[in-house]
Design brief:
Order of helices and strands: EEEEEHH
Distance between the termini: 43 Å
Low-confidence stretches: 64-79
Structural class: mainly beta
Helix content: under 10%
Strand order of the largest sheet: 1-2-5
Length: 87
Amino acid sequence: MLSVERTNNKGEVEVAICPLCSLKVEFMGAPMVRCYTTGETYEQDEIVWTPKSKVSKRIGYDAENIRGNGVEDFLANALPVEEGGEE
């Protein structure tokens, strides 16, 4: 797995942006990268590198639509959290 962040020659941190859906790339495999939103694959050299400071915090990741966003999506067999904590 390759890094989805890098530092450019100006010292700025850049993040990988999918050229197909314009969302952040969550991870990169070698030699191709898969866009989970469109289902297409593309070459690593097609990734758009954008300074992290210029990327809106509202831009999500290209895998969120497949794996879900709720806690229950990540912990399918977990018990629900009870309010009030431990007693």
